[in-house]
Design goal:
TIM Barrel, about 750 residues, 8-stranded parallel beta barrel, 8-stranded mixed sheet, binds magnesium ion, Beta-Lactamase, Enzyme I, Chain A, domain 2, binds phosphoenolpyruvate, 3 domains
Length: about 750
């Protein structure tokens, strides 16, 4: 019998005799794990971890030794919900010495969080005299005991006070980053809160294994139906949407490795449910340590699968019914889960761990659900049914808002839906300012599911087609035929309206499976066109797919991350060479470039002789101009496009392009914000390309702006700048004084 199996068997015997005292539990664990110390710390009111039982430390410390969450190794384990495996705990920077425990002789420590329903309610730790790096099997064993302990503590009501101690009724505000802008107010639904009282130890591992295998088969069938089954009807675009992301997900689902891990856990004596939770818990621990965004996505997919498998085992639908207007709080969210929740009518999403390029973010944007990511700590205090506001524009979650605060948001939401109704009327009207300056508002698109936004928003075309997004969603580069079909769909949907295809912008945070690029600064590393020029076969294949998709129609292609005119020339050369081979030739071939790297600003005269159009990628251009990583939330708001240097730079580009008669547009996120759009229009940008959500609000605002009046005001504000980081305040003041809602 393996050690783990024996420990589980002894635990089962212990439980069979009724609720086991904590003292017996620590004794048993210490004996079975050959540890000199085993201790249980329980969360008490005021975020304090109290020593509740120990084998090996001074018994007089029980009930006396208390550590704040975040204090000491135990506190750190609770705060981060991460396993601490330390051969030399006392020299860890977080170590907090408590003389009453008598723990000086013990060098090594393994501490695991005790978690229940998504919150940490205690810590279980073992210690040894000899410096020892505990094995993966030790970690698994202790985690299994922690699961049992969580149930025992809850059953004994030991943590009731702790739950109250976490200030469950006090309003809390959590900061995050915007994944999809918008506002949602409603009751909280917690994603992935586990059913309480799951049986943990199985009586018959063989029968349990059969039950698991049956559930896996049924789950995979359900998944196939979800992926294959939703292409028609009102939600057809959303569903076909998901196909691209779900294709990648399906690959994970069909990977046998994770099922094997669950089966192994069942063989060791756990029930199928407990085994799935265990493996999911391990994945959680691994995820925290993996820096690679792509791998994290894969693990999120796996957690999605684990949730589905648990639901299947319980014979339940993948998600519970949703109260009207509910907002979803999740640690992570897989693509299939997001689709399920969306179908249930979720109105907003806050995710603790989500990257803007991740699957959840891609789908949230495509489906138009307000969403924020990187919202740390919310799940330790949120309860199902709590009221919450997701203010995705500001990137924040307000949990249990004060009544007045909630009212403000409810009013804002009502105003928005009235505005939305008004905006909808603008859909078929041209974009023009109050004094008759015409503008072109275009759409940024990443997935074909977003194409229906062209008609929904009345956009005048696609100003940025991010071709890499579909590849990231699939997890692989599609072959030429598949790429061509994808691009043709965009051209079909656009009809007479132009589409600016951007060639693959991979690298940095957008990595395909198997791509391991070790770089200090991936945003400035081997990425994007640099890869395309170094691996011309890849770029050529994409260019051929674009030419095939055009099939004789006009075609516009631009290149990302161009640093020199020579790079642009080389890329254009590849396209022209390919164009000679593909028939029918496009009716008109326009070859342009993104302007994202500042060095290009000083090559404009040369560039403008050769490029047919320029599109300013302000997301990256701002990143490199101010040396401000676009993905670091703590830097948000420190620098501003609405500042003297950025506006002077942009105006220079507009003037140079105007003199050379080369069309210039701007396609960064800034274009979708009405105040920014107003300023960009004032400095002469007439084409703005943006995510779908921005088009009607921008059109609505511009329709009320008298550009003739605003331009001199803006010039004066810029001239009066005294080196401040932002000119936003005086511009906003002018707008408000003129009755513009910004
Ligand atoms: C940009 O950098 O502004 C841009 C539009 O490209 P991406 O956001 O895809 O990097
Ligand atoms: Mg860019």
């Amino acid at each position: 019998m393996t050690a783990r199996r024996r420990l589980l068997a002894r635990l089962r015997d212990l439980r069979a005799q009724g609720p086991a005292p904590l003292s017996e539990l620590v004794h048993l664990v210490a004996t079975e794990m050959v540890a000199e110390v085993c201790s249980i710390y329980v969360l008490r009111p005021g975020d304090l971890l109290e020593l509740a039982a120990t084998e090996g430390l001074n018994l007089t410390a029980i009930g006396r030794t208390r550590l704040r969450v975040g204090e000491g190794i135990v506190g750190l384990c609770a705060a981060t919900a991460a396993v601490m495996n330390l051969p030399d705990a006392q020299n860890h920077p977080a170590f907090a010495y408590r003389p009453e425990t008598g723990e000086e002789p013990f060098a090594s420590m393994l501490a695991v969080p005790v978690r229940r329903a998504g919150r940490t309610i205690g810590v279980l730790a073992v210690q040894n005299r000899a410096p020892r790096h505990y094995l993966e099997t030790d970690v698994e064993e202790l985690e299994t005991v922690a699961m049992l302990l969580a149930e025992s503590l809850a059953a004994a009501g030991a943590t009731d006070g702790a739950a109250e101690g976490l200030a469950a009724t006090v309003p809390r505000v959590f900061a995050g980053t915007t994944l999809m802008s918008g506002l949602a107010v409603g009751p909280v639904i917690l994603h992935g809160s586990r059913p309480i009282g799951v049986k943990l130890l199985s009586d018959d591992p063989t029968a349990e294994l059969a039950r698991l295998e049956d559930a896996v088969t049924r789950m995979q069938r359900g998944l196939d139906e979800l992926i294959a089954g939703a292409p028609q009807g009102g939600r057809g675009a959303d569903a076909s949407a998901s196909r691209e992301v779900l294709e990648a997900y399906r690959l994970v689902a069909s990977d046998a490795g994770w099922v094997r891990r669950v089966s192994d856990a069942v063989r060791s004596g756990l029930t199928a449910e407990a085994a799935v939770q265990r493996v999911a818990g391990e994945l959680h621990g691994h995820m925290r340590r993996i820096g690679d965004a792509y791998l994290r996505e894969r693990l999120a997919d796996m957690e999605d699968l684990a949730g589905r498998l648990l639901a299947t085992l319980a014979g339940k639908a993948p998600r519970p019914p949703i109260p009207p207007g509910a907002v979803l709080l999740a640690r992570r969210l897989g693509p299939a889960e997001l689709l399920d929740w969306h179908a249930g009518g979720i109105c907003g999403i806050a995710i603790e761990e989500a990257s803007p390029a991740g699957h959840a973010a891609i789908l949230a944007r495509a489906l138009g659900i307000p969403a924020i990511g990187g919202v740390r700590g919310m799940l330790d205090t949120a309860e199902t049914g709590d009221e919450a506001v997701i203010d995705a524009d500001e990137g924040q979650l307000v949990l249990r808002p004060e009544a007045e605060v909630r009212q403000v948001y409810v009013r804002a939401l009502a105003t928005r839906s009235e505005e939305h109704a008004g905006w909808a009327a603008l859909r078929d009207k041209p974009a023009v300012t109050a004094d008759g300056v015409p503008l072109r508002l275009m759409l940024n698109v990443g997935l074909t599911l977003e194409l229906d936004q062209l008609d929904r928003t009345g956009a005048e075309g696609i100003g940025l087609f991010r071709t890499e997004i579909a590849m990231l969603a699939r997890g692989a580069i599609a072959d030429v035929a598949e790429q061509a079909a994808n691009y043709a769909r965009a051209l079909d949907a656009a009809g007479d309206r132009p589409v600016m295809f951007r060639t693959l912008d991979l690298g940095a945070d957008k990595l395909l499976p198997g791509t391991v690029i070790e770089e200090e600064n991936p945003a400035m590393g081997w990425r994007s066109l640099r890869i395309g020029l170094d691996r011309p076969a890849l770029l050529r294949r994409q260019l051929r797919a674009l030419l095939l998709a055009a099939a004789g129609r006009p075609l516009s292609v631009m290149f990302p991350m161009v640093a020199t005119v020579a790079e642009f020339r080389a890329a254009r050369g590849l396209l022209l060479a390919e164009a000679k081979r593909v028939r029918p030739a496009p009716a008109r071939l326009q070859i342009g470039t993104m302007l994202e790297i500042p060095a290009l600003l000083w090559q404009l005269p040369e560039l403008l002789k050769e490029a047919d159009f320029i599109s300013v990628g302000s997301n990256d251009l701002m990143q490199f101009m101010f040396a401000v990583d676009r993905g670091t939330p703590s830097l948000y708001g420190r620098y501003d496009l609405l500042s003297q240097p950025a506006l002077d730079m942009l105006e220079g580009v507009v003037q140079a392009a105007g003199q050379a008669r080369v069309p210039v547009s701007l396609c960064g996120e800034a274009a979708s914000r009405p105040l920014e759009a107003m300023v960009l229009a004032a400095i002469g940008l007439t084409t703005l390309s943006m995510p779908a959500g921005g088009i009607l609000p921008v059109k609505a605002l511009l329709a009320r702006v008298d550009m003739g009046a605003f331009r001199p005001v803006l010039s004066a504000i810029r001239r009066g700048s005294t080196g401040t980081a932002s000119l936003r305040d005086p511009i906003t003041t002018w707008a408000r004084e003129h009755g513009l809602a910004v």
